[in-house]
Design goal:
Elements lengths: L2 H6 L6 H7 L4 H16 L2 E5 L1 E4 L28 H13 L4 E4 L9 H14 L4 E4 L2 H11 L3 H11 L14 H8 L5 H13 L3 E8 L5 H21 L4 E9 L15 H14 L10 H4 L1 H6 L7 E4 L6 H4 L10 H10 L3 E5 L5 E4 L1
Parallel strand pairs: 1-7, 1-8, 2-3, 3-4, 5-6
Antiparallel strand pairs: 8-9
Helix pairs in contact: 3-11, 4-5, 5-7, 6-7, 6-9, 9-10, 10-11
Length: 359
């Protein structure tokens, strides 16, 4: 059976098939990817009303791709107090924000309580707010710094009120690439283990992939299939745990030490979304995170397998530090109108993809 026959019969693809997918032209890939997304979600495009909060940019790691952490490229270190964070949350809740996406750098200066207490404070004052927090990279850093097992840190996340995990820190799973772009950070094995432990608790998380730097198409294929394997195991438990979305993140080229030449073209970006939708048959959602793709291309990606744009964000610090035009987020009205004029139905969702409003 050749590749096209496998696609037409919805046969699960292996690594060799996945590598061959990239050789197909964009519109053939798009046809199959769009058919899968429309079977799952019809003409719906999801988004949520969220706020990103990054409590500090002081980091013990020195990832070459990063423009966010305080360094020679970003000589403006900061640390937020819990009171400052709570003031932001209070103001956002009053405006209808439902999710708080809280990701910090790996600060060598702060205690474990500084990281965790803010989650308890938010949930005690705003119990309906969804706290998405603690990347696997943060869990790995804190576990090793303070002498905890991953299992103990995951349990502490639950006790302090974390509702779901973001997908940050995955980058590319190939260890040779990781050594070059983020040596010393959480390993691919550790990243996958931490998310698996979270899923064992019946909880959901996101999965990301940073692409467009020094990785190859083969690395992307391998990355997706490792996630698919973990998702198979997580879903087999039947306890509600697992990945709820895959998020390909386009590498932002400004203000970092990776020195990548050239610009990743729109065709390659759209192919990446399409390949992801085809390979990740056990993922419900593929998110085109507009902060890394540009909003226009994120909307186009909805025709190439993606079904989600992330959210209003309101204030975004990590991608914008690398050159993305996402610093001030978007207003909900603007979000809805852009989706509708692109020929889709806008659906506001909560963090776990329960539909709140279909516009």
């Amino acid at each position: 059976m050749n590749l096209i026959e496998k696609l037409e019969t919805k046969t699960r693809l292996d690594y060799e098939d996945g590598v061959k997918l990239w050789e197909l032209d964009l519109f053939t890939l798009g046809k199959f990817a769009d058919a899968i997304r429309r079977e799952k979600h019809h003409d719906k495009v999801f988004f949520n009303h969220n706020r990103h909060i990054n409590p500090t940019n002081i980091c013990a790691d020195s990832c070459k791709f990063c423009a966010f952490s305080a360094s020679r490229k970003n000589p403006n270190p900061y640390e937020m107090t819990h009171e400052e964070i709570l003031a932001i949350v209070e103001e956002c809740v009053a405006r209808g924000v439902k999710e708080f996406h809280i990701v910090s750098a790996h600060s060598p200066n702060k205690s474990l309580e500084w990281y965790f207490e803010i989650f308890r404070l938010i949930k005690s004052r705003f119990p309906e707010a969804h706290v998405k927090a603690m990347t696997a990279a943060e869990v790995n850093f804190l576990a090793k710094k303070f002498g905890f097992t991953f299992e103990a840190l995951v349990q502490k996340m639950l006790e302090y009120g974390v509702d779901s995990m973001p997908g940050g820190g995955a980058e590319i799973f190939d260890e040779a690439v990781r050594k070059r772009i983020c040596g010393g950070k959480v390993s691919s094995k550790e990243w996958l283990q931490i998310h698996s432990l979270w899923h064992e608790k019946g909880r959901q998380s996101n999965a990301t992939m940073l692409f467009g730097h020094v990785e190859t198409r083969e690395h992307r294929t391998d990355h997706m299939l490792r996630l698919r394997d973990v998702q198979d195991t997580s879903l087999a438990r039947g306890n509600g745990g697992g990945f709820n979305a895959f998020i390909p993140l386009v590498f932002q080229r400004q203000n970092n030490f990776l020195d990548v030449k050239g610009v990743l073209g729109s065709e390659e970006i759209l192919k990446t979304f399409a390949v992801a939708r085809i390979l990740l048959d056990n993922f419900s959602h593929i998110k085109s995170y507009w902060a890394t793709t540009t909003l226009n291309l994120a909307l186009v990606a909805q025709n190439f397998g993606a079904d989600d744009l992330d959210g209003t964000i309101e204030l975004e610090s990590i991608q914008s530090a690398g050159g993305a035009k996402s610093r001030n987020g978007l207003m909900m009205k603007e979000f809805v109108e852009l989706i509708q004029t692109s020929g889709f139905r806008a659906v506001e969702r909560d963090s776990l993809y329960n539909e709140i409003c279909v516009f």
